[in-house]
Amino acid sequence: MKNVLKQSGRAGGRALGNANVTGMRGVVDESVDVGLDEPHIIDGEELQQWFRDQGATEVTVVKRPALPQRNA
């Protein structure tokens, strides 16, 4: 059985720097802290490449649509 990554929410508490994500699959739609000794928060294509480099080639990083701005 493969590991499945479900990632949604703020980067706080989403530290994966020391995690073994090899073989994981799923969708990530937020920034992730991949730092080892200090925070290193990444998203987008940089995060996609990080997952590839870690052996998690079936993880897809997507961007959430921007929320509409309210008129003040």
Set out the fold topology:
Layout: E1 4-7, E2 25-28, E3 32-33, E4 41-42, H1 44-53, E5 58-61
Parallel strand pairs: 1-2, 2-5
Antiparallel strand pairs: 3-4
Helical amount among residues, as a percent range? 10-25%
Radius of gyration over C-alpha positions, nearest whole angstrom? 13 Å
Structural class by secondary-structure content: alpha/beta
Estimate the mean pLDDT confidence: 83
Helix-strand pattern, N to C?
EEEEHE
Low-confidence spans: 6-12
Query: Order of strands in the sheet with the most strands?
Result: 1-2-5
Number of helices: 1
Largest sheet: 3 strands, parallel
Strand content: 15-25%
Q: How many beta-strand elements?
A: 5
Distance from N terminus to C terminus (CA atoms, Å) equals 50 Å
Coarse shape: globular
Explain what you see:
The protein has 72 residues and is of the alpha/beta class. Strands 1-2-5 form a 3-stranded parallel sheet. About 10% of the residues have low confidence.
